[in-house]
Amino acid sequence: MAIACEERVHALRGQLVRQGLSGFIVPHADEYQNEYLPACAERLAWLTGFTGSAGTAVVLSEQAAIFVDGRYTLQVRSQVDVQVWSARHLIEEPVPSWLSAVLRPGDKLGYDPWLHTPQEVRQLKEACSKAGAALLPCEPNPIDALWDSRPAPPAAKVVPHEIVYTGTSSEDKRYKLSRQLKNENIGVAVLTAPDSIAWLFNIRGGDVEHTPLPLGFALLYQDGTASLFLDTNKVTAVLKPHLGPAVRIQSVTELPDTLEQLGKAGERVLCDPNRTASWIPERLARFGALVIEGDDPCLLPKACKNAVEINGAREAHRRDGAAVCEFLAWLSREARTGQLSERDTQSYLDDCRRRQPLWKDMSFPTISAAGPNGAIVHYRADEEQCRRLEPGTVYLVDSGGQYLDGTTDITRTIAIGSSTPEHRDRYTRVLKGHIALAMATFPKGTTGAQLDTVARRPLWEVGLDYDHGTGHGVGSYLGVHEGPQRISKGGQTVALQPGMILSNEPGYYKSGEYGIRLENLVVVIPATTDRGDGREWFAFETITLVPFDASLIDETLLNATEKDWLNAYHARVWAVIGPLVDSSTAAWLERATERMP
Amino acid sequence: MAIACEERVHALRGQLVRQGLSGFIVPHADEYQNEYLPACAERLAWLTGFTGSAGTAVVLSEQAAIFVDGRYTLQVRSQVDVQVWSARHLIEEPVPSWLSAVLRPGDKLGYDPWLHTPQEVRQLKEACSKAGAALLPCEPNPIDALWDSRPAPPAAKVVPHEIVYTGTSSEDKRYKLSRQLKNENIGVAVLTAPDSIAWLFNIRGGDVEHTPLPLGFALLYQDGTASLFLDTNKVTAVLKPHLGPAVRIQSVTELPDTLEQLGKAGERVLCDPNRTASWIPERLARFGALVIEGDDPCLLPKACKNAVEINGAREAHRRDGAAVCEFLAWLSREARTGQLSERDTQSYLDDCRRRQPLWKDMSFPTISAAGPNGAIVHYRADEEQCRRLEPGTVYLVDSGGQYLDGTTDITRTIAIGSSTPEHRDRYTRVLKGHIALAMATFPKGTTGAQLDTVARRPLWEVGLDYDHGTGHGVGSYLGVHEGPQRISKGGQTVALQPGMILSNEPGYYKSGEYGIRLENLVVVIPATTDRGDGREWFAFETITLVPFDASLIDETLLNATEKDWLNAYHARVWAVIGPLVDSSTAAWLERATERMP
C-alpha cells in the first residue's frame, strides 16, 4: 500500500532506525550526476513534494530540512509541508555548514554512494567530523525500500546523431582524447555524464524529459577504443554499425565487474571528482586501481562547439525566432481581451515551435508566467495557479526548443496593455545589463564570473539585484544547461573560449508583483581589435533573434551606445526573421523592430 | 670564499647530487609564509639575482626555470642570467604544470618544508606523481650550506601598539577568537602570519623593511590564553606588562617541543593550509595531534577595521595627502627644467612624508618612474637605470607611508610638459575604470573578483588591459599588502565586508614607452539605498585625497556621472587638504582641483 505523503518522512525515520542511522541525506541526483532526472530517481520529490531542478533534503531523527537556491525559495514553501520541513537557502547556508552545526557527537549520517560525487562526500565527511559524527555509505538507498510504485528506469532507444549535425566523427573525438590520456599517463577515463557520452559517441537517447540523453556509462581507453555500458533494451540495430568495431557495447550490469578488472590490473583510471558517483572510484580503488582525479575530458571539447555545430545553432535560432515571433504577434492581437490564461499562451507558443522543421522537443517545460507568477523564477503553470494575462501587468515567457541542429532558450517579458513607470525602469535596467554583456569584449582567460557584474551594474546602482546566475552554458541538441561555462557570481575558474554557447539573461523580480527576464543565447567568438598587444580578445555573437518589447523601454535611461546596439539588433531580427514568417506576423515584426530615435 | 653569482646554480646542483636529489624548488618565502622577507630569507635573490616580491625558481639537473607574474616579466629578464634561467609566467604556466611536464619517472624533487604550505606541498606532490617522480622534504635547506655571508635573522625589538590606534585590546580579540575556537571544537590555533600575530597581540616589530612586523609564532588556546614564540633578543621590558598574565612569552626554540606536547596530548589543532609552513602540521600530526585545516582566525577580523582604525586611516590619509600635494606642487614648478631625475623626485617626496606627524617609515620603496620605466610595474630607480623626467613624457609615482594610525598607498601619473592624445586617451580610460570602481554599490556577498571587471571595462572596450590586480587589501599600520580581501581577475571567495581597506588601482602599460596607474585607497562602508529588499548593500569611501592630473584627462571621454564624481572628489581634496599645506602648495592645489565644466 502506498504511503501517504505526510507519512513518508516518518516511514524513512523508521527505516533509518532499522539501519542504525541517525539521519540520511537526499540530494536531487541520480547515478549519472545529471541535472535532468528520470522519474525513478526523483527521490527528493517523492520524499518532500518539492519538484524543482536542484535541492537537497536532510532527515534527522528530530528535524528535517530542505535546501534550495534562490530560484526556488518561493516554490519550495508552496510545495513542502512546512510543519515537517524547514526550508533553507542552499547557497547562504550550505548543507555541510548546517550539518556540522546540528549533528551531535556519535550521530551516524547515511548517504547513497551512487548519488554523491567524491568531492561532495569529502565535504560531508569533514562536516560530520567537525561535529564528532560519522558519515556512512548506505546501499541500497533506504528510500527505495519504501517507495512502492516507483517507476521503472527509462529505456528509450539510443540513436545515432548524424555527422551533418555533429561536424566531427566519434572516431576523431576519441582519437584526440586518447592522445591526451596518453600524454597524461592515464590508462582509462570513466565517463558517467550522459551528455559527455552523447557527445563522444555522437548518439542521442530519450531517457529524460526534454533532453535527448542516453543514460549509461562509458570507458575510454588510451588506445582510442571504448566500452559503452547501456541497458540492453536501449540498443538498436543501427547503433553497432554507427559506433564501429572500436566501441564495445556492453550491458550496464557488467560495469561493476569491469571496474574490478581495471582495479586488479592496477590501471591508472581518470575519474572526475565533481561528476562521478563516489561508488565508482571507491570500487576502482578497492580493487587496486590508481584513481586519478581530473575533469571529465569531454567537458571542454563538448562546450567549444565546432563550425558545423555553431552554424546549426544559428539555423535553429532562425526557425525558433520565427516561431516565437509568430507567437508574440498572436499575443499582441489576443492579449487585449484579458481572457488568455498562462496555459493558453503556453500551448500556442509550444504549437508554433512544434511546426518547425527539425524540431524534436521543447528544451524544458515552457515558463508562461503572468503578473506575480513571473517572480517565481522556475514557475510552471498548473491547474491551480494558472492566471489570466491581465491588462496593466507584465507577462514573462521563458521557453526553448530541441532541434536536431541546435538547442534554443529564450525569455521575453511583455507588457499586457499599459505598463507602469516602475515596470519600465526595471525593464530598462535589465535591458541595459543585457546589452552591456552582449557588447562585452574581453581578453582570453576571462571567466564568466568576471563578466557577471557587467550585467548587474544597472540594477546595483539603485540597490537592486536578481538571485540567479546571468548565464548558463547550452548544448548542441543536448542539455539546455551545460557546463563548464557559466556567467554567475560564484567563483569559477573556466575561461570562456570561442565556440561556447551561453545564455545572457539578467532579470529582476518583485515578489508578489512581477518578474522581468530578458534572455538571448550568445556564442563566444574571436574579436578583432585594433590595438592588440599580442593578447587574444573574445566577444559574443547574439544568436537569438526576437525583438524586445519597446513599450517597456524607458528611452531616457539608454545611452547612445545602447540605442545603437538595440537598433542594430532589431534591424537584424527584421532582416533575418521577416522573410520566414506569415504576413500578419511580418506586419507585427516590422512595427516591433522599428528604429528607436 | 663567496661563490660568484653565475656559479651558484652549479654549486646548488652539486649539493643536490650529494643529497641524492634531481632537483630543488626555491620559492620567495620564509618560514612565516610572509610576502616581506628579511635578508636572511632572500634565497631566491641569492640564487637567481631576481629581487621581485614574488617568484619561484626550480633547479633541475639539466635546466633551471624562474616563474614570475605579469608585474615582473620585464624585470626578471634584466636581473637573471637568461643563459642559465628560462623565465616563465607564474599564472599562465603554474609551477606544478611545468613540473609534471618536465620531470621524468624516478626523479626526486626536494623542497624545504619550512617554505611551503601544506596546500602547496599537495599540489607539488600531485605534479610529481603525474610524472612518476617523488617529492621529498629537505632539512636543512641546501642553499644555506652554500650561502656563506648569509645575513643573521633580524631581531628588532617588539613594542606595544597602543589602544588609541588599535581600538580593541588584545584581551578582547583573544576572547572573541577563543569563543569561536570553542564553537568549532578546536583546542589550539597555530598562528604563523606575522601580521596576524601583530594584530592579535597589539604589537609591532621591525624585522622586515617598511612593514612593522614581528617575526615569530603563536598559539591561541580555547581558554583565551596564548603562547608567543619570539627570538628572546626581541623581547623588551614593556612587552610583558603589555601582554598581561594570559600570554606566555617563550623562546622560538621551544616551538618544536611545544608542538610535540600538543601532539602527544591528542589536541585538535587548527592550521591554515594556505598560510602555515607544512613543517608545523606535519610535526603536530606525527606526534598524534588532530590537525584541523581552516583559515587563520585572525584574517577576517584583522581585515575588517574597527571604527578607531578606520578613523586612524582617514587621519593618516589627510597627512599623507598633504605630503603628496606638497610634492606635486614642487614637481609642477621644477619639472619644466627637464633636469629632475627619478631619484631627485623620489627623495623630495620621501622627505615630504618624513616630516609628517606619526610617520614611521615608507610603506614600500617609492616607485619613481619616468617615461618607459613606468611600464615596469614594480620599478625601483637605481643608479644605472635612473632617468630624467623629460618633457613630453608621463611620470608615474607610487608611494606610501607607515603612520602609527594607518598605512597609505597612492599612485599618481603626471604629464611632464605636454602630453599626446594617446597618453590622454589611455589616462582617461584608466580614470574611468577607477571612478567606476570608486562609485560601485554592491550587495553583501560580492567578492573583489566580481568587481574587478568594472575597472577594466573602459580599456577592454578598445582591446587593452593591464596585467596586475585592480586592488589589494591594506593593513592598519601593518602590511601595505594584506589579505584576504582583493580585487582581481583570479577566482576568490572572500566577500567584501565593511571596514576592509583596499586599493583601487587600474593601470595601463605600454612596454618601452610609458605607464599609467591611478591608485587611491578605499574603505568598504554600508550603503544606504532606497529600494532595499532586505539585502544589505555596500559601497566604497575613498580615503586618499590628492588631485588627478587634469591635463591628462580627455573630457570628451567622460560622461556626466564621471565628471560629477571627479568634481566632488576634487572639491573634497581642496576642502580637506587646502588648510593643511603651505601657501605655494595651496595655490597649486586650488588650480589642480578646479571644477571641470
Low-confidence stretches of chain A: none
State the helix count of chain A.
19
Query: Biggest interface in this structure?
Result: A-B, 41 and 40 residues
Query: What does the main sheet of chain A amount to?
Result: 6 strands, mixed
Gyration radius of chain A (Cα, Å) is 25 Å
**Subunit arrangement of the protein:** homodimer
Chain-averaged pLDDT of chain A: 94
Number of strands of chain A: 28
- Structural class, from secondary structure content of chain A? alpha+beta
Distance between the termini of chain A: 68 Å
Name the shape of chain A in a single word: globular
Helix content of chain A: 25-40%
Strand order of the largest sheet of chain A: 4-3-2-1-5-6
Strand content of chain A: 15-25%
